[in-house]
């Protein structure tokens, strides 16, 4: 097998809040490979977001190592992390986190303005099926549409990794499916490594690989022989 | 194509236009003051420079009793002297149609054998007198304007006792009379004082000075030392009754101009500093709140790969947009204000042309200073915002840990409604924000005190100077000192009720390294008309031994009560003596020194001479008095109190009123700006809390009470500081604008304080009304649904 995109070893993250220390990750060893679609499952508070945030350079581990394509992110400084986020990673969050004062197109332009070889914002929005609503403000879009703008924004810079933290968490089933389809399509067509957090076990069927987290550990890993198309998922 | 982030900037600004404008306006006020004052400085300095140079303003001035023209040639031989102009200068009484009181004509002779070498006349209209013409004169512009005189008109003058009719052939200006007033007078009275230029022989013969001069001016060669030239000139002219030469520093007109520039320099710093500080506080408040609200957007931007610096720059740009708007408004307004002030200046200062010169460098400086002020206001906020790791910032802000406020901990809780408690706790949670808001409000309140204090001070000055101190109706000065008979004549003019003799003498007062040339006035013991009052309002009587002087003069000399000063009389035997300062007068215009009349006479070795008198005149016989005094040949200067008062009100009074209105407008802008800004910020910070309260069943009114309670606490807390600051500001500004010519006493009436409070409170009420209306339109569900 080719060398992994991400290689995490003994990853620990401890948050200090007031008097108590919260151990969010307690020794995680994991690899992610190019073109994979991975689903992270686990109960609330199990450390999924923490892992994803560290992978995306939004946070740094307390101990352990994390390499991205052979580059160490463990002790990277703020400047390196910014550069890493800017060129390599696309994020999608549960709350779409669009800038309310910018239209869909402009929200995507935020990213295309600063990346080296971006898609046109219009193309990215076409890709998620939002071509006709490009000039609407977030407040004029439904939740699913906003989430798709967020996806378009995440992929417009042609990232190598797409990290999605409960992208369907705030959406109803049908809308959730269209969002997942969009992610799946990006993964398939652009070959982007996609990591999706959910606590919905049904979504595991669409993945190449499923990681179960509990209490800051990866407790189970499962590989699917074949990925189920998103449309056929049931929950 | 505008970058997406800049679009966000524009839209954010669009949403916050009220506040953007409020802050920009406050900033604009400071920048306007700066542009105005700096441009005025540039205008005055530039114009003065050119005028002095082109029309050859002299460097050294002096007068003598009577010196032969040959003595002037000797002056010209002194090393360092470039040119000498000997002249005859006399004051004559003018009889102007339509003016009851006699006016003073200050006659300055024009050389006939050669052209003028110094103080070249700038002709506004008409021509110079023809050589040999005895009656042709040029009159000064301010005087001509005040009396509607034109070339071709005639003028009746009493020249050395003879009534003569002069024909005006030209209207002119001279660099030695930029400030056109009687020597020693601090305010122009253009109706009753004018300069008349006349051919040398015409005046010299009339005053028996043909072939001689009684006044001279010297132009120094570049690099020459004025002090040595003065020393040499005084020595050369001592036997001709020289009264001591002096430099531009003591020259009435030049000194006035200097004073004005000094005042402008002070104002060009003080005001901008205050306004820009307020603006910096406001920028800080606006940005702090914006950044807090956009905490998650910031995290998102960073997740997208924008660096901390990109994000910081984005918010800084917000502040810079405010700066740019402020600078544009400020400099445009400053330009117009400047031009307008220049017009006001022409009341006091006469130049061939006083053309407004914009100080463009002020604009650059303004931009720089206000950017710095804004940056200071923003930097802390932004730094805090970008420091947060994005993962953290993206989580909803944890519920703030509130605790009971210290007032409550002190056990006052029982008396507070829950709303009031919320307000208190909110303030206590962000104490710095509260401090900044209070500081801004206090500055605004303080600024409000200034305009009122200016007129309080002016009123006090007028009452004091004109009602308490000066009780005479008329002051008369004679062209030549006279005997007891002269006093007898004055005493018996029709309508004169009381008369007190005055003997004044030109002198130089030395103390340590400081020296001042000033007339010393001898007043009779037991005199009651011109009262010398100290700072407590007590009358000071000059003792036999001792000198009483303006507190300002003592300050200039660096002397204190009881110090021995050297007095050098500049007339007659040029006697010298020392005298202790036995009293300090609290006066507000000019500087003066007084001695006991007998002491002066002893010093001069005279017994009953006078050169003037204080008179009170029966109102009913005023016209008779006026008619007679106009024809009294030897009375050259007649100062009439009520006329002076009117003139003062017209000139300084008008200036002060204008400035007052101007400062008032500025203060109102700041007061409204600051309160409105605080109210808007409070609203947007609390709207979630407020919406929650509404949802659980609080009424509009109850919810408004939470918000307004907080603001009210801040406003009330700011008021006392504001009044204190206002007092300090008044003290500073008035001392900055105080010159030897006019000093403004610090007086603040209760009404001034009340007006300041009223305006600030009205601003508060108006802003509250706006905010309450917004509160009513609050979209409850929307606010709660939004994750912040
Ligand atoms: N910034 C933070 N500060 C303090 N505790 C945190 C922070 N982020 C996460 N945690 C804690 O770490 C644990 C793991 O959180 P997270 O990774 O968000 O879980 P998941 O995404 O699986 O629900 C939780 O107990 C959470 O409260
Ligand atoms: Mg999570």
Q: Could you list some keywords that capture this structure?
A:
heterodimer; A: 235 residues; alpha/beta; Rossmann fold; six-stranded mixed beta sheet; four-stranded antiparallel beta sheet; 10 strands; 28% helix; globular; B: 788 residues; alpha+beta; 4 domains; six-stranded mixed beta barrel; six-stranded mixed β-barrel; binds adenosine-5'-diphosphate; binds magnesium ion
Structural notes for this entry:
The complex is a heterodimer of chains A (235) and B (788). Chain A is of the alpha/beta class. Chain A has 6 helices and 10 strands, in the order βββαββαβαααβαβββ. In chain A, the strands form 2 sheets. A 6-stranded mixed beta sheet of chain A has the order 6-7-8-3-9-10, with helices on both faces. In chain A, β7, α6 and β8 form a beta-alpha-beta unit. Chain B has 4 domains: 197 residues, no CATH class; 198 residues, no CATH class; 188 residues, no CATH class; 122 residues, Barwin-like endoglucanases (Beta Barrel), CATH 2.40.40. In chain B, 54% of the residues lie in helices and 19% in strands. Chain B is elongated and about 100 Å long. The mean pLDDT of chain B is 84. At the A-B interface, α1, α2 and α3 of A face α1, α8 and α11 of B. The structure holds adenosine-5'-diphosphate (ADP) and magnesium ion. Adenosine-5'-diphosphate binds next to β1, β2 and α1 of chain A.
């Amino acid at each position: 097998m080719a060398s992994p995109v991400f290689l995490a070893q003994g990853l620990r993250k401890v948050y200090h809040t007031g008097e108590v220390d919260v151990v969010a990750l307690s020794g995680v060893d994991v690899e992610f490979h190019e073109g994979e679609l991975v689903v992270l499952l686990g109960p609330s508070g199990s450390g999924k977001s923490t892992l994803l945030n560290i992978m995306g350079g939004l946070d740094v581990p307390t101990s352990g190592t994390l390499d991205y394509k052979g580059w160490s992110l463990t002790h990277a400084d703020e400047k390196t992390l910014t550069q890493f986020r800017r060129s390599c990673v696309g994020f999608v969050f549960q709350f779409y986190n669009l800038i309310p004062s910018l239209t869909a197109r402009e929200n995507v332009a935020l990213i295309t303005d600063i990346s080296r070889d971006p898609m046109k914002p219009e193309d990215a929005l076409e890709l998620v099926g939002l071509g006709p609503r490009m000039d609407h403000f977030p407040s004029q879009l439904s939740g699913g549409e906003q989430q798709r703008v967020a996806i378009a924004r995440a992929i417009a810079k042609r990232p190598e990794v797409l990290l999605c933290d409960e992208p369907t968490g705030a959406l109803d089933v049908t809308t959730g499916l269209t969002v997942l389809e969009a992610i799946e399509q990006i993964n398939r067509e652009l070959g982007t490594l996609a990591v999706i957090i959910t606590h919905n076990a049904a979504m595991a069927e669409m993945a190449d690989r499923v990681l179960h987290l509990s209490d800051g550990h990866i407790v189970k890993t499962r590989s699917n022989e074949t990925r189920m198309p998103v449309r056929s998922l049931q929950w | 194509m505008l970058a997406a982030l800049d679009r966000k900037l524009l839209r954010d600004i669009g949403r916050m236009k009220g506040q953007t404008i409020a802050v920009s306006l406050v900033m604009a006020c400071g920048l306007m003051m700066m542009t105005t004052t700096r441009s005025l400085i540039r205008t005055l300095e530039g114009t003065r420079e050119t005028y002095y140079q082109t029309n050859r303003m002299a460097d050294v001035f002096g007068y003598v009793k009577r010196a032969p023209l040959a003595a002037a040639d000797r002056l010209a031989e002194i090393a360092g002297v470039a040119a000498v102009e000997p002249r005859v200068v006399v004051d004559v009484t003018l009889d102007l149609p339509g003016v009851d009181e006699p006016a003073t004509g200050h006659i300055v002779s024009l050389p006939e054998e050669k052209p003028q070498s110094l103080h070249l006349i700038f002709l506004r209209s008409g021509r110079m007198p023809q050589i040999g013409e005895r009656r042709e004169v040029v009159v000064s512009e301010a005087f001509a304007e005040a009396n509607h005189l034109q070339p071709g008109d005639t003028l009746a003058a009493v020249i050395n006792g003879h009534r003569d009719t002069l024909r005006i052939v030209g209207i002119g200006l001279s660099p030695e009379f930029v400030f056109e007033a009687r020597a020693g007078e601090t305010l122009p009275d253009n109706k009753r004082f004018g300069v008349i230029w006349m051919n040398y022989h015409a005046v010299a013969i009339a005053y028996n000075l043909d072939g001689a001069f009684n006044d001279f001016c010297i132009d120094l060669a570049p690099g020459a030392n004025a002090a040595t030239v003065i020393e040499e000139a005084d020595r050369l002219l001592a036997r001709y009754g020289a009264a001591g030469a002096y430099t531009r520093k003591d020259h009435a007109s030049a000194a006035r101009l200097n004073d004005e520039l000094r005042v402008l320099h002070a104002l060009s710093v003080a005001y901008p500093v205050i306004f820009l500080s307020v603006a910096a506080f406001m920028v800080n408040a606006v940005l702090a709140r914006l950044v807090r609200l956009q905490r998650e957007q910031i995290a998102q931007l960073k997740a997208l790969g924008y660096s901390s610096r990109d994000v910081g720059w984005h918010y800084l740009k917000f502040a810079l947009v405010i700066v740019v708007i402020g600078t544009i408004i400020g400099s445009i307004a400053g330009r117009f204000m400047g031009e307008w002030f220049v017009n006001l200046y022409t009341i006091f200062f006469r130049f061939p042309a006083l053309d407004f010169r914009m100080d463009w460098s002020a604009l650059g400086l303004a931009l720089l200073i206000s950017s710095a002020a804004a940056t200071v206001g923003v930097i802390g906020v932004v730094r805090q915002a970008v420091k947060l790791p994005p993962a953290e910032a993206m989580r909803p802000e944890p519920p703030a840990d509130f605790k009971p406020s210290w007032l409550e901990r002190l056990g006052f809780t029982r008396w507070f409604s829950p709303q009031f408690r919320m307000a208190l706790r909110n303030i206590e949670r962000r104490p710095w924000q509260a401090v900044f808001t209070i500081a801004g409000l206090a500055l605004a309140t303080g600024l409000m005190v200034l305009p009122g204090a200016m007129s309080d001070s002016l009123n006090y000055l007028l009452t004091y100077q004109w009602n308490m101190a000066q009780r005479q109706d008329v002051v008369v000065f004679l062209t030549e000192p006279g005997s007891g008979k002269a006093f007898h004549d004055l005493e018996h003019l029709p309508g004169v009720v009381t008369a007190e003799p005055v003997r004044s003498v030109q002198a130089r007062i030395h103390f340590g390294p400081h020296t001042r040339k000033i007339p010393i006035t001898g007043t009779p013991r037991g005199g009651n008309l011109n009262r010398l009052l100290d700072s407590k309002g007590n009358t000071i009587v000059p003792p036999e031994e001792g000198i009483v002087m303006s507190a300002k003069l003592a300050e200039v000399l660096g002397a204190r009560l009881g110090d021995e000063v050297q007095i050098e009389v500049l007339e007659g035997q040029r006697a010298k003596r020392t005298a202790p300062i036995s009293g300090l007068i609290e006066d507000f215009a000019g500087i003066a020194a007084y001695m006991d009349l007998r002491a002066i006479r002893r010093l001069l070795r005279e017994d009953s001479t006078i050169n003037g008198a204080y008179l009170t005149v029966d109102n009913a016989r005023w016209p008779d008095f006026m008619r007679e005094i106009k024809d009294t040949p030897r009375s050259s200067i007649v100062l009439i109190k009520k006329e002076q008062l009117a003139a003062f009100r017209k000139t300084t009074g008008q200036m002060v009123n204008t400035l007052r209105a101007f400062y008032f407008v500025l203060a109102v802008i700041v007061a409204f700006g600051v309160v409105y800004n605080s109210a808007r910020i409070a609203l947007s910070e609390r709207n979630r809390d407020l919406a929650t309260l509404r949802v659980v069943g609080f009424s509009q009114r109850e919810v408004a009470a939470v918000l307004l309670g907080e603001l009210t606490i801040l406003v009330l807390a700011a008021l006392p500081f504001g009044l204190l600051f206002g007092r300090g500001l008044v003290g500073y500004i008035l001392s900055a604008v105080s010159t030897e010519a006019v000093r403004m006493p610090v007086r603040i009436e209760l009404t001034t304080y009340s007006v300041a409070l009223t305006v600030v409170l009205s601003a508060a009420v108006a802003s509250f009304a706006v905010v309450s209306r917004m509160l009513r339109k609050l979209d409850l569900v929307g606010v709660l649904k939004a994750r912040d």
